[in-house]
Amino acid sequence: MSAKILAAALLLTALLAAGCGGPGGGAAAGMNVRRGTFEIVIPAFGELQAAKSTPIVVSPESRFALQSIAWMAPEYVAVKSGDVVIRLASTQLPDLLRTEEAEMAKLNLEIAQKEKQLQKEKNDLTGQIAVTGIQRELADVYAARDETIYSRNKIIEDAIDLNYQTIRERYFQQERTQLEKRIAAELQLLQSKARAHEVKIKQFQDQLNNLEIRAPHDGMLIIGKMWNGEKYRVGMNAYSGMKLGSLPDLSVMEAKVYVLESEAAGLKESLPVTVRLDYEPGRSFTGKVAGIDTIAKPLNEDSPLKYFEARVGLDVTDPELMKPGVQVRASIFVEKLDDVIAIPNQAFVFEGDAAFVFIRKGGRVLKRPVEMGARSLTQTVVTKGLEEGAQILLGQPGAAAKAGRPS
Questions:
Q1: What is the DSSP string of 266-282?
Q2: Could you say which residues of the chain have pLDDT below 50?
Q3: For 267, phi and psi rounded to 5 degrees?
Q4: What is the pLDDT of residue 391?
Q5: How far apart are CA 241 and CA 248, in angstroms?
Q6: CA dist list (Å): 182 to 119, 130, 169, 400
């Protein structure tokens, strides 16, 4: 007996017994106990989605200029690998690229002029070194050294001139070495600036090339949603890394469902689930809870209600019926017990930790202790103290309860 049938039978029995109090029965409604199936079910709603899908994202390189969505392929349309699915637009990118290219051209001209100037200075020093070397060699060859032929003053003057030419040659050589180091440092700085501009130019060119987002493989385009559930559309801004859509693998589907926070007691992974499609309510599909968000969140910013989002893995995928975005209703079975006695919660009375029910027996109302098992929002399983066929009262019997004794 299903939970709905059991509940209907209990309600009918209670209504029929409501006026049959008999002696001492008071005005409390009654019902006959029956064995059946007890279920704790969490209701949920949501939509189908692919268990696996390839995201369609804005390139991570797209972080230098503001972009907007200029065109999107129709949703749920089959696309081929390489097809353009989303086209972005940016008025800033061309200007940024032209600015960098102009800076690069200016820097290349500066590097060429600097190389020409430094090469001239280097050539001048090289010429000075060559001339000084010749002068030193001549001074060395014609220097007066024989004291029998030349005066002492002449010998001293020639020695001083030779030393001067040697020192002068060494000085120019040191100047050339320092110039070469300075040339290397200045050119390295300019080339470093040039490389920085080259990197920016490449980034802007790549971003311009990425304004057309293409399908990585064959599939069906699904337009993405923002945090508030609104789908992306033409005219909206697009930022680096933003997921604008996806190409799902339709061979394996799952359900993304939402559970009201106040009804989520007992919700955990691996619980069995029954899913029904809104437009095909006569068929049901089984599955299990595959994942649950750790924090309950409102579905929109104006709602005071919070929901846990859960993923339900389906045992079977029907490609003809199951498409991404199809609305579903789900029943998550926290607990299911067959052939048990379950009675409405309002039938219990409590004294401390002890639980009791009032039964009608032989024209009298008796107060009977019972042991409770699994409990839902409406019913509780009685594990001991109550047999099938017994007639219980739904509520307090009033003063007539004094006529009976605990049995």
A1: T--TT-EEEEEETTEEE
A2: 1-26, 399-405
A3: -70, 125
A4: 92
A5: 18
A6: 12, 21, 20, 112
Share of the chain above pLDDT 90, in %: 43
Positive or negative torsion for Cα 118, 119, 120, 126: positive
Residues 80 and 218 reside in one and the same domain: yes
Split into its structural domains, the chain has a count of 3
Q: Are residues 352 and 390 in the same domain?
A: yes
Residue 287 and residue 40: Cα distance in Å, rounded?
A: 17
How much is the pLDDT for 273? 97
The two three-digit tokens of residue 329, written as one number: 């209703």
What is the domain range of residue 185? 94-190
The reported pLDDT for the residue numbered 363 is 81
pLDDT for the residue 15 = 45
Q: Which amino acid is at 361?
A: K
**Same-domain pairing of 244 and 255:** no
Closest CA to 23 of 407, 347, 399: 399
3-state secondary structure of 288: strand
Same-domain check for residues 103 and 217: no
Predicted confidence at residue 406, as pLDDT, reads 52
Expressed in angstroms, the distance from the first to the final Cα of the chain is 30
